[in-house]
Amino acid sequence: MVDLLLGLGEMSEESFMGSVLIRLVCAAVCGGIIGFERGLKGRPAGLKTFSLVCIGATMVMVTNEYIIEYVSGGSGDPARLAAQVISGIGFLGAGTIMVTGANQVKGLTTAAALWVTAAIGITIGSGFYFGAMAGTAVVCGFSGLYALVDRVINGNSRYMKLCVEGADENFLVRLLDFFSEKQIQVKSLTRKSEYKWYKKDICAIVELDFGKRQRHDKILEELNRIDGIRFIHEI
């Protein structure tokens, strides 16, 4: 039973089939755990996608093992199909990456998570359950930790990028006056016509340099008091 769970030792074909079932179930669980976290954040790939990626990678590995053990008589490279999974998963990851109307790239973390999930599937498919469980725990644990650290660092940095929308041109004048009074350098200001809530509004993407670290939430509070600003958020 231990050999069945760990994938060790010589196994009959029936035992191998039982091991395959265990690996696939494990892959579904591990992939689903990672995908659940992405799904909660509304990302383009969620629980089902991640679970399928992990199961698919596991199936490639167990198929490779089956071919070597029961078809080719022990000859072949056990890592050959795994290499194709690692290189081939990129097409799926690329499909989750997009550039928004605010020139903001989204989906990179989801693409990276898909790649890692495929690697976990390969680990499970090779029978290395501890490595797969440890990898899943580390990915999920550090995803939350990195999100917290990212909020702290980026929320207090000297640089800030904003998307602002107002009813007319006058709000932009008042906005620039505010930055001038606070001695905040405007690195760039780009008008955007496709990123508006209301067709007649004026929308712009503004990149700022405070010169020193500043709390972004306080800056947003002050900006929201400017007359004429309908909508503002950090991107």
Features of the shown structure:
disordered N terminus, 2 domains, Alpha-Beta Plaits, two-stranded antiparallel sheet, four-stranded antiparallel sheet, 14% strand, elongated, alpha+beta, 235 residues
Kindly estimate the percentage of residues that lie in beta strands according to DSSP: 5-15%
Number of continuous helical runs: 9
Shape: elongated
Distance between the termini: 53 Å
What is the mean predicted local confidence, pLDDT? 82
Low-confidence stretches: 1-8
Structural class: alpha+beta
Widest β-sheet, arrangement of strands:
4-5-3-6
Topology, please?
Blueprint (H helix, E strand, L loop, with lengths): L1 H5 L6 H28 L6 H25 L8 H9 L1 H5 L3 E2 L5 E2 L1 H18 L3 H26 L4 E8 L3 H12 L3 E7 L10 E8 L6 H8 L5 E6 L1
Antiparallel strand pairs: 1-2, 3-5, 3-6, 4-5
Helix pairs in contact: 2-3, 2-6, 2-7, 3-4, 3-6, 6-7
Main location: membrane
Organism: Candidatus Enterocloster excrementigallinarum
InterPro entries: MgtC/SapB/SrpB/YhiD_fam, MgtC_SapB_SrpB_YhiD_N
Compose a concise summary of this entry.
With 235 residues, this protein is α+β, with helices and mostly antiparallel strands.
Overview of the molecule:
The protein has 235 residues and is an alpha+beta fold. Helices cover 58% and strands 14% of the residues. The chain folds into two domains: 2-153, no CATH class; 159-234, Alpha-Beta Plaits (2-Layer Sandwich). A hairpin with a 5-residue loop joins strand 1 (98-99) and strand 2 (105-106). Helix 2 runs antiparallel to helix 3 (47-71) and helix 3 (47-71) packs parallel to helix 6. Mean pLDDT is 82; it is low at 1-8. It is a multi-pass membrane protein. It comes from Candidatus Enterocloster excrementigallinarum. Residues 24-143 form the MgtC/SapB/SrpB/YhiD N-terminal domain.
